[in-house]
Amino acid sequence: MDYKIAGRWAVVCAASQGLGLGCAQALAGEGVNLVINARTAHTLEVAAQALRTLDPRIEVRTVAGDIALPEVRHAVLRACPQVDILVNNAGGPPPGDFREWERSDWVKALEQNMLTPIELIKATVDGMAQRGFGRVVNITSAAVKAPIDILGLSNGARSGLTGFVAGLARQPSLAGHNVTLNNLLPGAFDTARLQKNLAVAAQTSGEPVEALAQTRREGIPAQRFGQAQEFGAACAFLCSAAAGYITGQNLLIDGGAYPGTF
């Protein structure tokens, strides 16, 4: 299927590894030019080199730095001739007990997982509407659908973004001009973050990492963890011309782990 987005420009945040890289790979495979961002310059350049091999016709530009900083956001936007596609992504806040969090912890979570995506959306969607095409995909979390008690910072910040997007996506000034905004909600994917979390859990519990991983897999109807490439494929579809009638939606990708009907 031709997604009809070849030659367009995308900004993909946190794209040096994991789900962000999976999204960048899928878009590169569709012939989309990329501006990718991550904090670590070396891993970002390695990712960029690999992305260029997927389609020699595309251009891949890199901007290293913390996307939560205004100067980094401005540099990312300056590097992109025009933003047709925006994929917002950022690592989640640490787990813990809300009784231990200070105001600064909440502010940091909101900056990273709510306010930064909103700033990037604000900077790009009107231009998308003027050109008659735009796709915004926010990578949030399955915890937006089914909150996890120890992830209160993430639950709060990402839910705030979800509510904001729900209203914005339905504005005729955007939806009526072929600009869509949707959220992807990942469950357990085989990424470095998942492996780190399993390692921390193993250290705390004294159980082997693989035993914990197997228990986690058995709790998923698909009986496995997701792959970043699968996640990227869903992102590329939402960014395609074919997905122009899908907006304001939250697509849960979790192997069936969420037990509800809605």
TrEMBL record:
Transmembrane segments: none annotated. Gene3D superfamilies: NAD(P)-binding Rossmann-like Domain (3.40.50.720). Pfam families: adh_short_C2. Belongs to the short-chain dehydrogenases/reductases (SDR) family. PANTHER family: 3-OXOACYL-(ACYL-CARRIER-PROTEIN) REDUCTASE, NADPH-DEPENDENT REDUCTASE BACG. This is SDR family oxidoreductase. It comes from Pseudomonas typographi. The lineage of its organism: Bacteria, Pseudomonadati, Pseudomonadota, Gammaproteobacteria, Pseudomonadales.
